[in-house]
Write a structure and sequence with these properties.
about 400 residues; alpha/beta; Rossmann fold; eight-stranded mixed β-sheet; five-stranded parallel β-sheet; 13 strands; globular
């Protein structure tokens, strides 16, 4: 069955102004997050603008159809044969990392031909030093993530079993927290077991193709143990040495430098996202005891199983992803001996976020709000909750339900 492609305005807003600009547009992110669909949306936009079919050239390099195009010279000659110097040729090169030295090909075409180039990829080579070397000043990158909550709701309205008027936002939030945002999971109704099987396949592709095989890691089992530790400690500060000590306690030897290397590879494969700490009083970035969040919560559920007792960590993860999608730089805040869950900054603006599952005692309320009240500036401050009492204002601090925060237009 062929499904219509749903608009993703967050990314199209970034990409549309770049059409016909003399830059390579690089879309990167974890596998199955929707990069190929964005290329199709761009192609549809070009067709609306009157671009002829013969001016649009699309290749998907993870298809056997193009298995012979594995070298830079072969790819260059193939693409050159489609370029018409009289009119702009629009090249869409999907999963281009499968071709060795693709950066050289793209750079040569950009210099030699009348082209507008868009590429996608799913591993660290998309943001490696090779791009900087061959495309310096000639490319712009866009990080594509799985569906945020607003996009998820749009998918549910389009493909779900309920109409727009029947959509229960709070119930859908809980479903989103369980199933995550990979678009493929929301094109039709799936059982949770089937959804996690699909996600496990995505996970295995990333771990064993994009990391183990490409980096020639000999002890894949140790890498997976690091992954499970990180997945089990979402929202907890830890260091590479902490993780190495844990491995030692499990009778598995792993050097601190190897842990750093594995964490770096997991970041570059878009499995993990590192959230550094920021000292609010000292106004400096801290290099120890960072936090890690997942590009999508379903990865954890597929690997470790869904555990409702970890809901506060799941809330943090979703909020971190939402702020990132909106273009904020996100940090864990340190204020003396207290921790602020998130400080988010963008274009000179800033906001503070404290996350709590529920507030059921004056002591909890005082702890969560006093941390924010101790910050003496006028930037917006939020306490995000998941209980029904999550609404209101406490001495200038906005209290919001998680669903309302994720859908809010005010920040």
């Amino acid at each position: 069955m062929i499904y219509p492609i749903i608009e993703r305005p967050i990314y199209m807003k970034q990409l549309l102004p770049l059409i016909d600009q003399p830059l390579v547009k690089v879309l990167y992110g974890i596998r199955r997050c929707g990069k190929s669909s964005l290329l199709q949306l761009l192609i549809a936009e070009l067709q609306k603008r009157g671009v002829k079919a013969e001016q649009i050239v699309y290749y998907r390099f993870d298809s056997l159809k193009y298995a012979n195009l594995t070298s830079a010279p072969a790819l260059y000659e193939e693409l050159r044969s489609h370029i018409d110097q009289k009119e702009t040729t629009y090249l869409f090169l999907d999963e281009i990392q499968e071709v060795e030295d693709w950066e050289k090909v793209v750079n040569s075409l950009l210099i030699d031909g009348n082209v507008d180039i868009y590429v996608t990829g799913s591993n660290s080579r998309m943001m490696s030093s090779e791009i900087s070397t061959y495309l310096t000043g000639r490319y712009v990158s866009v990080c594509v993530k799985p569906l945020c909550f607003r996009e998820y709701l749009q998918f549910r309205k389009e493909y779900g079993q309920t109409s727009d008027n029947e959509l229960n936002i709070k119930a859908e939030l809980m479903r989103y927290l369980r199933t995550g945002g990979f678009p493929v999971l929301h094109l039709r109704e799936l059982t949770e077991e089937t959804a996690y099987t699909i996600v496990k396949d995505i996970y295995n592709s990333v771990i064993f193709t994009d990391i183990v095989k490409r980096s020639q890691i000999r002890k894949a089992d140790l890498l997976e143990r690091v992954v499970k530790y990180c997945f089990d400690n979402i929202g907890q500060t830890f260091s590479a040495s902490t993780l190495a000590k844990f491995m030692k306690s499990q009778k598995r030897s792993l050097e601190v430098e190897t842990v750093y290397s594995y964490l770096d590879k997991l970041e570059k494969a878009y499995i993990l996202q590192r959230c550094p700490r920021y000292d609010i009083r000292g106004k400096e970035h801290l290099k120890t005891q960072e936090k890690y969040y997942l590009s999508d919560l379903s990865l954890r559920h597929a690997l470790l199983g869904y555990d409702a007792s970890c809901m506060p960590a799941f809330m943090e993860n979703v909020i971190y992803n939402e702020l990132s999608v909106r273009g904020y730089n996100v940090y864990v805040g340190k204020q003396d001996n207290n921790e602020i869950d998130f400080i988010a900054s963008k274009a000179g603006n800033k906001l503070y976020v404290q996350v709590t599952y529920t507030i059921n005692s004056p002591e909890t309320e005082r702890r969560e709000y006093e941390r924010l009240l101790a910050i003496k500036d006028n930037y917006p401050k939020y306490v995000i909750r998941l209980d029904e009492g999550a609404a209101g204002n406490y001495q200038g601090i906005r209290t919001m339900h998680l669903a309302d925060f994720l859908l809010s237009r005010e920040y």
